[in-house]
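Project standup — Tuesday

K.O.: blocked on the structure for the chain from last sprint. Re-posting the sequence here as requested.
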Amino acid sequence: MGDDSEWMKLPIDQKCEHKVWKARLNGYEEALKLFKRIEDEKSPEWGKYLGLLKKFVTDSNAVAQLKGLEAALAYIENAHVAGKTSGEVVSGVVSKVFNQPKARAKELGSDICLMYMEIERAEVVQDELIKGLDNKNPKIVVTCIETLRKALSEFGSKIITLKPVVKVLPKQFESREKAVRDEAKLLAVEIYKWIRDALRPPLQGINSVQLKELEEEWVKLPTAAPKQSRFLRSQQALKAKFEQQQAAGGDEADGDKDDEPAPQVDPYELLEAVEILSKLPKDFYDKIEAKKWQERKEALEAVETLAKNPKLENGDFGDLVRALRKVIGKDANVMLVTLAAKCVAGLAAGLRKKFGTYAGHVVPTILEKFKEKKPQVVQALQEAIDAIFLTTTLQNISEDVLGVMDNKNPSIKQQASLFLARSFRHCTQATLPKSMLKAFCPAFLKQVNDSAPEVRDAAYEALGTAMKVVGEKAVNPFLADLDKLKLDKIKESADKVELPGKKGGGVGAEKKAPAAKAAPPAVAPARSSGPPKKAPAAKLGGPPKKGKPASAPSAKGKKCPETKEFVETEISIEVCEERSATVLPASCMQLLDSANWKERLASMEEFQKAVEQMDKSEMPCQALVRMLAKKPGWKETNFQVMQMKLHIVGLIAQKGSFSKTSAFVVLDGLVDKIGDVKCGGKAKEGLTATAEACSLPWTAEQVVSMVFAQKNPKNQAETLNWLANAMKEFGFAGINVKGFINNVKTALGATNPAVRTAAITLLGVMYLYMGAPLRMFFEDEKPALLKQIDDEFEKMQGQSPPTAFRGARKGGAEEDGEEADEQEENGGGAPDVMDLLPRTDISDKITQDMVDKVGDKNWKIRKEGLDEVAAVISEAKFIQPSIGELPMALKGRLNDSNKILVQQTLTILQQIAVAMGPALKQHVKNLGMPIITVLGDGKTNVRAAAMTTLQAWVEQTGMKDWLEGEDLSEELKRENPFLRQEVLGWLAEKLPAMRTVPSDLMLCVPYLYSCLEDRNGDVRKKAQDALPIFMMHLGYEKMLKATGKLKPASKEPVSALLEKARAVMPAKLAPPPGKAGAAKSVSGGAPAAKSALSKAKPKPVIDDYDDDDDDDEPEPETKTKKVVKPGAAKKGVLGKKAPVTKATAKDEEDRSGVIFILVPNGKEQRIKEEKGLKVLKWNFNTPRDEYVDQLKTQMSTCFARWLQDELFHASDFQRQVKAIGVMGERMEDELEGTVSCLDLILKWFTLRFFETNSTVLMKVLEYLKLLFPTLSRENYHLNEYEASSFIPYLILKVGESKDVVRKDVRAILTMLCKVYPASKVFPFLMDGTKSKNSKQRAECLEELGCLIENYGMNVCQPTPAKSMKEIAVHIGDRDNSVRNAALNTVLAVYNVCGDQVYKLIGNLSEKEMSMLEERVKRFAKKTPAAAPPPARQAAERERPQREHPSNPNATFMRKPAQQPQEDVPNKLNQARAQNAVREHSHPSIPKEFQLDLDMIENDHTRVSELPDLVQHKLDELLEPIMMPEPKIRSVSPHFDDLHNSTASTINFVISQVASGDINTSIQALAQIDEVLRQEDKAEAMSGHIDQFLIATFMQLRLIYNTHMADDRLDKKDIFKLYSCIIGNMLSLFSMESLAREASMGVLKDLMHGLITLMLDARVEDIEDGQQLIRSVNLLVVRVLEKSDQTNILSALLVLLQDSLTTSSGSPMFSELVMKCLWRMIRFLPETINSINLDRILLDVHNFMKVFPKEKLKQLKSDVPHRTLKTLLHTLCKLTGAKILDHMSMIENKNDSELEAHLRRVVKHSGNFSGMKSDRGTEKGQDDRMSKAKVSDILSEIFKKIGSKENTKEGLTELYEYKQKYSDADLEPFLRNTSQFFQSYVERGLRVIESEREGKGRIQPSSTVIPQHGLDSGSVPLNGEEMKPAVYYERLKILRQRQGLENNSRAQLLQQEEGDSGPMRPITSLLSKPSVASSTDMLQSKLSQLKESRESHFQQEQSHSHSPTRCSSPSANLDDLKKRLERIKSNRQ
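H.V.: unblocked you, prediction finished:
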């Protein structure tokens, strides 16, 4: 009894886990009473039992367990937090309760499971129960099945997900235990009640006897659908309704059946997908091509067997489908055709929507094959095409079906119509829109009149089905011309049609429509608003070619007579006079042709009055206008009479029934007067009135053709101006674009500028409606004209077309409203315009050969194929959607390993989008979706190209097709961070503009949720941005329900984010109201979309972690208020409440005031006192009384009195618990106060850690779990004082005996790293490993492993080596858990840095080492040395303060970077130890940058406060730049303290560019690149360009000298750094304004760095090194073009001087510098005006001082000399004698060698210009030769050159011809020849020239720089000076031939940019050497002297195809070896 009395005193929770079973039993009984007694479900009391609940149900004592189960059930029923325990408790129930013999225990266990389901944990419970089915104990299995059955019976199939249950059910029928089989049978019967026949397919495989028994049971079941009888907590409304029904009796319940039909379960969804592609016979593709039909049959039978599987796994079925299609289309054996059709049907049925990709390929073939007469073939084809239809949409295959509707073969027409009839049955009003009917009905009407009866019947059936589906009113407008008999037949067919799943057919659909739209009864009866919404407004005019008015179809709402165009025949003049006499006064008639103008005017006035008073019905329009046209008619000379006459024409057109016949009478006169100054206005009014009466398209066509038949430019200009205005007023519907384009082209070519201006204005208006496609018509125009057109288009950019208010659309208001919907869904109005454009069928041009090329193994051939495809599309401009095999071929290229080809493919896809227009929709699935896949590419430029392509496609197709089916969700499923962030960003941009979305969008939601928790921060951000947009369409409830499938750990954060998203959810676009719809223009949806987006904008401003308390408030005002940062609002509240607190602090009982009193600088004062040892330092093993007293004293000044009393209450711990609860509740409201007292709060908690009361401890931990995330959200970081007085004591509790405590402490340590750097937490944990408590040691070691895994080795303090040695000691610990933890930690290090770990841990005993090696062998990751995944970087961005600032990625990026402690220089003190290893690895880091970082590192004074400057300052100053805060923070934790302005921010980031740490540099470059890429924000870099370039070339120097020589570094990292540098430079030098800021000195160093990089042989060894050199080439060109021309020219001159001065420099270096100079010289004519010649001449002067003429000639190469002379000559040529005035900066001009040289050149060039003028006169005489004659002569010459026999003769003739006609243009004859032939001709001409003129007179310019913008011969320098150079060149060539000179680079550098035009960089290092290089020319001359012409020809041929590096391999190899040795010796 003594023992009993001992445990009787314990608290209930301690009794429940006592080792004595009686104590536990007593505890469970008391707990049960307690649980029933607690009324508040959120009471803190529940939290005590969270960790104990599993022990309740798994108690080892059966008696106690029974009571524990009862208590657990009560807990789950009443506790708010019970859901958290669902997984572990249900798992315990399944394993420890369901196997009990007592029925009561099983029953309670089952009840617990059901109760968890009731509290919204159904998924978790179901998972555990299904896991239980695999248990070996049959008792457990039986009870699990029984529980599942109960759950399904009570909760229904909506709550219980049946798919996983059905999946495991067949296995239970195979059990050896009868009880299991019986229970499975009962479960199968229960499932059948809910899903009926959908259960049959999955159970087909079970024993036939069992199946028969089941069938019998199923038959007995009632037909009525079962109902849910037990409800979730969230379904209380349903529960109340159910109870009412039960009370009211059965009738009412039955009556409610229709309200909520049971959800239909698709059997397909319950099936497991089968993978069949791998099971195809290996020789299938060979057999299917075999000649023997039996072999082909075998192959098809194999496929048929596989295709019978009801559900197939998705894969690449392209090849298989192509093979089957070929059999269907081309096989002569009908049996095989039938078999192939069955295979296609099977694939379509098994793949469903996934087969839609291939539908477009197969449908045309099947339709064509319907020509077969054999019934079995036709039936198989019908089944196949019907199955295919269900996988795609009608729209996608409409083009193919329409293509065969007018086929000559009646069978094809019949079967096509019957197929459409069957397809229509599966359609609804939404999926069979007006646009589809409009396309199909004309084809059906043709067939109705067909001679074949079966074709007519099929057409009747199709039209009848369409009428049934969409209602008569929608179809009738298309049947207006049918006679009654045929109309009756269609209606009869409609009556016979039975639609699947609809009893009332289309009637129900018609009845629903009026409710949705209240159509005005005046327009049509209420039922008449039933037609579907879809019909684009721009198509109202019908096909333009038929010449019908645009008003015809649009007037559906009016009465019948108005729907038809008013037509009248032409009447004679006599009849006109008679009719006019009846309505006009006699005097008016008499005076019409009076000679007196006043009488004619009076007559016109009477005429006008009469017309104004006439009624429409009695107005004879034609007669009246003919009277007006009667002599003098339109030749009237008096302007007043003419004005009146034109005004009357307008009146008649407006008031009467004005026909086209009448219009013809007046149009001539109107057009003739439109340009008249006085009458033009009235003429335009008359034309407008005519256009309203007869439609604008018709009127405009007539008017334009008339006016261009005249020659009056004024009339032409004014007509075009009127037309431009009319288009705005009438809209663009029905305009014959093609006709107008031709007329506009005529106008553009007019000589009169007014006509051209008017034409361009008209084009601008047309652009508003047509968009970019319009420009394609004018691409052939002259550049100047094209620029004017582009400028006009640019003005219109972004404008939406004005609202049309004229025309015949007045009656169709509500139709327009409907049509606006369709426009919006189809991507706006542009597609409708696109339909008007003439399109070319290019399917014939897409040959098999072209497709094979695109798929070739050789990338060059693939590129060639793509070029051909691009050429075909460019040539066609607008194309039809049939593009043959091209989609599959292009799809393959989108994942090409060559990224250039991927980009080229994307460009082609953009071309296709523009060229194909809206018909592109049918290619969305097979070619559009792969574009989305490319968004996951690692290269930014590829992703950007993919996004551009995607946008281009969506512009044409609209979004709907992209969202349908599973394809988009499959893309999001890929765990690729790039793809996810791009796709989510794209959806967030596009979805707000949509009114409705397909239900399939819901499939993306699970992946959206996974993105919310993605490791990558950018993905999370994008997902959060997209969340409100998804919610806008899917609704909050649906999305919340979808969280049910998430893991418990994920559900809460996702639900919280959903709540926040709900608050900022934008309003959904409302469908346009009736009246507004009438005013909608073609792109009417756009403004609404913008407004929706603008509403969504404030979202990102809201703090991600902010928990909104006002989510329930629906008013929009609250939404806008929430945009304010939460902290600001809270501060305001505190500010007001603080004084109140002071006033009421004395009143102990008043607890309503604030609990923390803000004392200014209170915390700082406490820190100061502790540092000054004025108070005790908070450091103890156990707290003594003086510490407690000291804390009380400190708290008294800033804690509310009552709170302090509660916290230090001596006897009642419950008071302390309540006080902590109050602190937790007030945390959000008093956050500022909490932060100000944080040190005291944490100290008070440390005191609690030394007490044994677990209730208080759990409450403390609960508070801390709330506190640290809140601090992290507010960007608060603990200071050293707070951390050191709290963390060591928290770590003590990590060794607590209770699991729940240890778990909580570990969670808190993880959160702690968000507010305190992980590297500083590390030493505390290291101290924890020295504890005597083995659990504490183990947990600390585990936590250390987690830190290293998450943050890399840089967290190891003081150094990795020292830390690892201490950790490794524990591998030999006597406690097993400690040993394991130590091994796991070392393993984590191994995973980060590989084998380096063995160096770090030092010496271990043999036993310990073997344990470690075994652990590494079994559990290590496969690629330990690889760079850490993006996840870790993402984690670091999330937690910017976790890591040491010197390494922003916070990862151990390279194996060798960490050195053992012995290697660290001793002089580094403790504070810098964190940075020590990195410094040692990179000794050559520039000191100026290192010092800055050191200063930051050692600055511990500012740690205490980190105001959130980045968030505010950058947003304000760089608005709208969003510099990503985490990236900047990751660079330094003290960033905010040091950098509080934009300039200093940029300075700091630039300083990081030159960092010795590769990752730091990359991050800094990424930030700068982000600014540079956005033009509006790039100006922030202004003023920092030199600084940035200095940092860049320092980094280049560092890489060259250090990184590249370091074998331990991963070359991929170096390549990545190079890429970043070059990318940044390219961005910078693409902006001229910034590029020009670069100074001369900086440019010189930059060019030095870049050229050195190009010459670095080591770069080629890096993967993609060649690509890198190309990029540098491009950058060099950009620098030369965009920099300040004076600075860059000056820099190059100085650089050349330096390179020639230093003997150690590479000769290649100076050669490259000269190449750059040549390029600069080439462009001097354009840039001369912007160059400061004085400075350039000074630099040349300085150069010539260092290198006088004589010294220059002594150099190995004479090229520098010639370069300098060429520069000076060019300057002289451009400026003339004025050049001598620009020598002001040279001190002693007279002594300067430069001045003498310039004077000589100026004088010489004067003579030369005289020679040129003589030649010009000679040329003038020869101009008389006819062009034809010239062409014939040259053709003859080139023929000779092309033949082997006469080649030399031809070249001689060509040379003589060129001498005679120096300006002869050979370009047309050389353009289409090969590069080799062109080079051959040029060489031949030079050889002849050298023979004739002698070797000594070779002109230097032709030798050195023949194609650098200077004519060969334009620089006649003295020939004598060149002689040594010529001989030197010869010597050089001979040396090269003998392999004596390693000139591989020289070969590469010889190509002149002239060969490839300005588009290629000047030093295209990777292309083959051009034959036009100077060395090659000399070589050819030598060859000519020594060899015959034929052998020379052969030599050139072999030379042109030789590899770029043509020196001997041995020489190359030896040279490389020497260089390698030099590098190694330098490094040592």
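K.O.: great, moving the ticket to review. Residues 1793-1822 form the longest helix (30 residues). The chain has a mean pLDDT of 74.
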